[in-house]
Write a structure and sequence with these properties.
By secondary structure, the chain is an alpha+beta fold. Among the domains are: 2-172; 302-456, Histidine kinase-like ATPase, C-terminal domain (Heat Shock Protein 90), CATH 3.30.565.10. It contains 13 helices and nine strands. It has helices at residues 2-5, 17-33, 35-52, 55-80, 87-118, 125-141, 146-171, 178-255, 266-294, 306-323, 343-359, 394-397, 418-428; strands at 302-305, 327-331, 338-341, 366-374, 377-384, 432-438, 442-450, 454-458, 467-471. The strands form three sheets. The chain has a five-stranded mixed beta sheet. A two-stranded antiparallel sheet has the order 1-3. Strands 8-9 form a two-stranded antiparallel ribbon. Helix 8 packs antiparallel against helix 9 (266-294), helix 10 (306-323) packs parallel to helix 11 (343-359) and helix 11 (343-359) runs antiparallel to helix 13 (418-428). The radius of gyration is 38 Å and the shape is elongated.
Amino acid sequence: MAIVEQFLPKKDDWYPIDRLERQLKDYINVSENLIWQRQAIFLAATLLAAFYFSPVVSFSSYAAVLFTEVLDLILARNVNRWTDHDPAKARKFLWWVMVNTVASAVAISLFVILITLQQTSGGHFTPLFFLFAASLFAAVNNHQLLPALFLRLSVYGATFVFIATWDIIRLNPPIDSDVWLQFFTVAFVMYFIVDCSFVFLKLYRRGLAQIEEITLEHEKTKAALEIKSQFLSTVSHELRTPLTSIKGTLDLVNSGVMGPVPDQMQPVLGIAAKNSKRLADLINDLLDLQKIEAGEMAFRFNMLNVRELVDDSVTLSRGYAEQMDVSLSVTHADEDIFINGDAGRLSQVMANLISNASKFSHKGGTVDISVKRVDGRVRIYVKDKGVGIPENAKERVFGRFSQVDSSDQRRVGGTGLGMNISKKIIERHDGQIDYESTLGHGTTFFIEFDIVPHTPVVTGTQPEEGRRWKTA
């Protein structure tokens, strides 16, 4: 066991435990994936050897190889269950991999040697080919763990040397004989196998280094995102309190509650109030975006009546539409339709769609809100007859801090976050949000949800006593 111990990583060794864990699991995964391929090779070699040589020796050797396969399966099961990243377990598993490797290589080598001893003439093509196949298989598939690969190829190499020198020792042939030719051919084959092993080992190590580099960059990116989220959250919360006070004071002054406002001050105060509202909307959107990215946005799902959701949203948005000199028109489905959702979050989405439609509509125009069944789902449309959206602008429409009209002369303002937040809220509801648009003729946004089956349940003896709904 001294040769095994020298390959085991010690504390503070160059062999990092996290890399050892990855290599162990890669080694085990490859071993499990190729188990039936190995068995087919072993069985074919056994049947061929049993037919031309001793069946007893062949099947006895196959039984020994199967025993080592069982040991590998037990080890693989234990490694796959390993989740605590314990360095002591990593070294223990590596030790068992080496023990199993030696047992497996010795079993296969004994099988090859026993065939060699039975073949007294005609060279040793069959056992040498069996050994070459086993060595090449190891070079291609066992490069994840250099100690295991070294041990296996060392055992196979010793077997190659035995076979190549067996006839030389037994026959003492001249240097120009076929026996010596076989010896030099075996040496060339051994070099070829070692070279293949290093090629696959380098490729694996290069891939492993790239994975580690990507993982490190991923961790750095996650840390940067976490810092960014914390910064946005802190700054937004710190800005919200004084901004709320400023906005409230401006609203009081503009309303005339604190006395008449001089004519020359009204435009300035109006601009200040408008910009404070815009800044408040930006802060609220930033907080929502931060919550979504951090997975902290709370959703309270309940069965919602789509008719009530739309009516409430239109009522809340009517004042803004009137400011834009736009009217709102609502068309409901012929029946009550229910969905599973968060009323507050979906009202936020509806308010964003209606406000966008109002902003981009022509003065005196109409925004149509309608509800329809579409292929077993419910779809809510918000249609305007405004400026429309250019083709290939979907990434800007649903992107962050982006607007379709990003010029300095754009007619309407906004944070550039509303549609991005709306999309994430709809996706959280397992829904869909999209739009259809013709430039210069208007845009139709729609959101789509699964319908919740329901049946009316009448309570009391008179219809006017009330009605409630339940899911089917």
